[in-house]
EAL domain-containing protein (Pseudoalteromonas spongiae), 719 residues
Amino acid sequence: MDSSVTQLEQHLVVFTMAERLLSELKQPYSQQALAQISQETFANFPRYLNVSYFQLTNNQQLTALHTTRKTSAKPATNLSELGIKQVIQSNKLLFSIPYYEANDGSLRMAISYLSQLSNAQPPLLMVAEINLNSQYNPWRYNILDKGMEILVTQKPRIKDQYWSLYHTAPKSLHGDLGKAYNQPMPPAFVAYVNKSVQKATGRPVDKYLQSDGVSIYTNRTQGIANVRVGISYNKHFNTFIAVRVPLKTIYNEVSNFASWIGAFGLLTIVATFFITRHLYRLDIGYKNKLYQQANFDKLTKLANRYFFDNTLVNEQIHNQGRYTLLCIDLDNFKHINDRFGRHTGDKTLQLIAERISQSCPSNALPVRTGGDEFFVILQTVDRSISSSLARNILNAIEQTMMLDNLQLSITASIGIYHADEHIDPQTAEIYAEIAMFEAKKLKNRYCFFDKGLAEQLHQRVDIETELKHAIENKELYLTYQPQICSAHGSVKGVEVLLRWHNRKLGLIAPDKFIPIAEETGLIADIGEFVIQQALYDYAQNLKYTEISLSINVSAYQLMYTPLFDILKHHVEHYQISPNRVILEVTESIFIEDKGAVQGLFEKLMSYGFLISLDDFGTGYSSLSQMRDYPIHELKIDRSFITHIHEKDQDAALLHQIVSIAKCHDIVTVAEGIEVTAQHEIVRTLGIDIEQGYLHAKPLEIDALKAYLAANTLTQKACC
């Protein structure tokens, strides 16, 4: 008995192994792959077990793919030939009705498993046929004590129709062994069992169909020897298992009672095994789920911060710390989140993660550590390999994305650090980030770490920390640089320039703290402070003049803050005409949505505000922007002016820019006029306005008032 139970358990284990291997089978599956599964799982049962694989079509027909049969018997072509009379379900083992093999007359029972490997392919059916006549069959009849009977039945969809799966005395039901399994059980016998069960237990047999359960009762039917009966129902296989043993056997021999328990357990172990297997799978599944949650990012499916930290430690220990770390940060990703919402931002991150992963070789691990920051751990310190990988990642990321009918483009900046055994993982990460921040100054490029960058990072951290409190600590203030009419020398306007003097860091140049303010979003509050303070100063000190007030606004302010409402509120509050206010925007605005930018410009200009394109020639724009956008003024970057008196080609280029601007009735402004020779050439070329140290340095408001009072041409019209 024990050996039979053990063999049965072994059967179920190998079926589970085959089930797992089938679920992992890759498309398209081949005969070689199917044969390998059979070899790996069923090789120990060759004498009474045949394994076949079929494709199951929509009309329930079978197409043979592979079999371990040694005979030339024709394979089954439909489910009924395999004794399957129930609805077969995917990913679920099924016992079928025993049937006789025409080729050798053997009684066989199929255990089937249907695997839906792909929606594009027909389901794959695995059938393991057990020869019930074999002396090696663990379910053979001679294992039970005398007088003990076991009956296993299955109820297909037809009402009150039961089929025998296993019976210790099959002839007793039909009188003919050939009919014992190929037709339903006799209706009279079914009715008798129903009546007996309900009389003894108070429950009809159909009640057992509602849940798994076991009942044991004594059958004292007149004319039949008293017997003890155990009946159970297994929902998984839709089977009833009944065990019957004479009472006198139980009374006379305790050992026989133990045998009865063993016999009952032999057949119910099927249900027990699957319950145990289910619980085991739940446990394994739960552990796998916890492992996934602990080690992998839910959104992108890449390794997460926890996995990243552990991997760095392992590289330090097992690879002598010789690895390369790439820090990848998306450029202006916050704009996507703010403009299109978190949903689009998440989809963008998923696509970026996929592109990074596809760019990595087999010896590289991509990781998402949080937000829009990614890392790649590369198991080499070869500079050429890390450079090539960085270029591939940048090229992949910058490809245009289509998300929810939106066409988006984004770039990234990458920092690279080659670690060695003397650097701990935390420091390696910091060094890679330092290099990334350096690359971010120009964006869409990569940069290698060097020690000089570490000091720059410390400065950046200090600036960002102090900048957060600059407004409340009253450390920000404004200066105004006069703009001079080239033709007459009169003051046409002033440009508002922000200054910051921190009690800890001292005076910090705008090109040091303004980029950090834009990257961190602090520019929103700082920009509103500039607008409010500049209009206040203008109302208090310059309202009597007719000069213009030029205020720099960032792309972030334009696209992600209520800029129009802020401006409108303050000009109305201080009673300043909007056409006195010129908004200077940089060419970076043109990487944003063109339609949205045009709409915002038109809204501002329709109210009276004027638009000036600052630093022209250094960024994304071209001369075509003068035609496509409602631009009032063009500020030519100082890089075009610096050598204009030394290089004829610079003057020729400047002449072309001015000519095109005049064709569009756009006012031109030259920045960086510092020597008289520059002034003379600019005036000759017809540039309207000059700005630079030759005329005046940036002045605080009181100094500006004195400057204007001394300049008698302040009120004279220029352009």
In short: The longest helix spans residues 254-295. The radius of gyration is 42 Å. The chain has a mean pLDDT of 77.
